[in-house]
Hints:
There is one protein chain. The protein is an all-alpha fold. Helix content is 74%, strand content 3%. A two-stranded antiparallel sheet has the order 1-2.
Amino acid sequence: MQVILIGIVLGTIYAVLALGFSLIWGAARIVNLAYTSFYMLAAYFFYVFWSILHLNTYVSALFAIVVASLIGVGTYKLILERIRAHETVVILISICSAFFFEECILAIFGSDFRRVPPFIPGYQELWGVRILNQHVLALGVGLALIIGLWLFLSKSKIGIAIRATSQDREIVNAMGIDERKVSLIGMFIGIGFVTISSVVVSPIYVVEPLMWVHPIIMVLAIVVLGGLGSLKGAVVSSLILGQIMSFGLAYAPQYSYFLIFIPLAIVLSMRPQGLFGRKL
């Protein structure tokens, strides 16, 4: 039962990360492989504000989210936006940016593992199984972000503009909507999702320079399985892969990454566009 519960938490966090990635793809039409490097930066800023500057845990988390998000949006505005018409170049520059941020962290902090404090220490017993309060918080925050994004995209004018931009940019421009501004808003929300996920999840694990690698592997697997640009596909695929990863880590950790690619291979052999993607 504990493995299932952890799988649900993992799936929810993966869903938040994948939704942010998909939103960026839909709004700005770029595959930003530097996406989870801001997950790493947010965790390190959290550590700096809490451990070095000795700020309150909640204040440290808030500042970490804001600073890492500004760096993420700044990277898009100053670098990626200028070249987004060249998809291959965007992929190369974004992955180079991720390595650049990693090297900066290594130069400043070294490769040692760091810890940040949980927001809610202790654990709860659910159906006879102990689960950390931080896991419960991560689940709650993840669900709130998913529901909030759904309401935003379906009810607000800006959300509807983002959906329209993801479907047909030329029509959006013809209607007088500033497509660049819409893309920037989508980017900010997407980066916000990854930085919020970081400060919620980092107290459960450790803060280290390579912590961005696992999330980007999972995000790419999820968006390919669910269908690139499909928010529904991102959520469903996240829950599936979250359970597979949880069981894999519990019973066969050496094969955990191999296991997540089994459903990927099966689905793509029958539906190359993914579970909920548009037909190629």
